[in-house]
Amino acid sequence: MISFKNVVKEYPNGFNALNGVTMAIPENEFVYLIGPSGAGKSTILRLIFMEEQVTSGEIIIDKYVLGHLNDAQVPFYRRNIGMIFQDYKLLPRRTVYENVAFALHVMHVPSKKIKQQVSYALDLVGLSGKSSHYPRELSGGEQQKICIARAIVNQPSILLCDEPTGNLDPETSWEIVHLLTKINAHNTTVIMATHDTEIVDGIPKRVIAVNKGKLARDQVLGTYIE
After folding, report:
1. What angle do CA 112, 96, 172 make, to 5 degrees?
2. CA angle 78–125–103, rounded 5-degree value
3. DSSP class of residue 202?
4. CA distance 166 to 196
């Protein structure tokens, strides 16, 4: 369960990115997070991932009250969360396999288990035959699939997606979102920030709309435009 209780996020320059957001997202739900640029979508994702801290209010993720975590606890908390970025953030000098395995090495996961988990993740995204390739040798859609494999390799309970189809052509975008729905069916909560009207309308899920830092709409099986 993800719970926001009257969450406010104000930056030092005085900009209020979020202003009193209250919402709850149950386990295993798929949510589209929509709204204009600057509405607060990415701020919500960064708060969940603990790249940002709330100014006031409370965020509870499963057993964690985020405001109570110290710096040493954050890496352990993040093991339950995968993050997919629009701009990939891949390591150009590492192979597909090495990019996906990197986080597991950092966590000192045994080599045998790393091999098993990376193989599973690459098979799930359809890239098991390209594990020795480098990112530059792959298409944009394939690079995004590497990002998805990397985000799910530790089998997180929550997957955060920040505009994952923003740099992709329409056909590849559909493929990526169908992949995300497949991951969601494996008992993973998926929150996808997006501007893609056709995707939101074409694969109906819960829609949470934000505007000027406030919740504008929360709709089961919603559409992009109310």
Report:
1. 125
2. 30
3. H
4. 8
